[in-house]
Amino acid sequence: MRRVARALYEETRDLPIVSPHGHVDPRILAENAPFSEPASLIVQPDHYILRLLYANGVPLEALLKSEPRRVWQLFAEHYYLFRGTPSGAWLDYELNEVFSIRSSVSAETASPIYDQISEKLQSPEFRPRALFERFNIEVLATTDAATDRLEHHCAIRESGWKGRVIPTFRPDALFKISSPGFDALGARDYSGLVRAIADRRAYFKQLGATATDHAVLEPYTAALPEEEAERLFQRARQGEATPDDERRFTAHLLMEMARLSLADGLVMQIHAGALRDHNRAVFERFGPDMGGDIPVATEFTRNLRPLLNAYGNDPRFTLVVFTQNARVSSLNPAVL
User: Fold this and answer.
1) How far apart are CA 277 and CA 279, in angstroms?
2) Tens-place pLDDT, residues 301-328
3) How far apart are CA 91 and CA 117, in angstroms?
4) Where are the domains of the chain?
């Protein structure tokens, strides 16, 4: 198996990277400013790193609010925790191949490694766009809220730089009608909401978008009568929508997103099966994306059947399903 893996790697290692889904902030590439120091680049933005450290007793306050060199020291003191994990393999490769760090990370080596990385980050070769080109990235798709003005994408396009960075339309907040912060894009009725979503999709596509992205707890799909969709929308506007209302509204909006994909050609991506902000205390103190997401069992075959029966046979429609479970990924969506 290892021999086959190495052979595959050798055949593909020099191919350009096509990244259809990612969470790089486009501001980084728009401004192209030097990264400030190692802790804010490697440790603090990575919720996988934060989650493992927190699970082993390192306070999040110390990781997020301490002086950068202290954050790096804590990270290095606990670096052994990453042995045998995907994050560990990623970190080892990054430090060795990108930053040419040859010593092991530990409490004793933390300070000199911090200084080595900090020095490199100030050189032109480690500016964001230089790294983009060094990594041979052909295209990088970011993940952007439906309400995003995409000013950083505009700045990249207007800068004359040749790197291809495109937005991805992620309307999750528009589906959360039981949330106090529900945003209806200024619509006063359900049909107005759908028109507003279509307009936003068109704007994203104008700036290069090729796909939408939907992070739902379950890939449940079901078409509602128009009057029922309107009733749920009005309940949301009044702040009266319940979680069950939201589940039904989301199922219906997923059907609408598939229908709109027939018209505008955007690939529909569904990321299902992550229960967000599971750790309530961490969420309330530090906000979202702090490592509190946990996979849940997810059923695709029955849940997606209404959507696929409505649109799956149309050659204009492309659906990409992501799952948190490798076994489910190989057995369920493969036959859809």
Assistant:
1) 5
2) 999 999 999 999 999 999 999 887 655 5
3) 13
4) 171-336
Task: Indicate the pairing of strand 144-145 with strand 169-170.
Answer: parallel
Q: How far apart are CA 270 and CA 169, in angstroms?
A: 12
Distance in angstroms (rounded) separating the CA atoms of residues 66 and 83: 25
pTM for the structure as a whole: 0.91
Give the count of beta carbons closer than 10 Å to the beta carbon of residue 162: 7
pLDDT value at residue 334? 44
- Is the separation of the CB atoms in 212 and 170 below 8 Å? yes
> Do the beta carbons of residue 291 and residue 281 sit within 8 Å?
no
Burial class (CB in 10 A: 0-12, 13-18, 19+), 136: exposed
Backbone angles phi, psi at 86, to 5 degrees: -55, -40
Are residues 113 and 92 in contact, defined by beta-carbon separation less than 8 angstroms? no
d(CA 158, CA 30): 10
Locate tokens 């990321």: which residue? 271
Task: Tell me the per-residue pLDDT of 247-266, one tens digit each, with 9 for 90 and over.
Answer: 999 999 999 999 999 999 99
Is the CATH number 3.20.20.140 carried by domain 171-336?
yes
Q: Are 126 and 35 in contact (CB under 8 A)?
A: yes
The tokens for 224 are 């509602």
Asked whether 163 and 189 are in contact (CB, 8 A), the reply is: no
C-alpha 140/C-alpha 147 separation (Å) is 20
List the strands of the sheet with 165-166, edge to edge: 17-19, 137-141, 165-166
Distance between CA atoms of residues 126 and 134, nearest Å: 9
Q: Taking the CA of residue 165 as centre, how many other CA atoms within 13 Å lie in the half-sphere pointing to its CB? A: 30
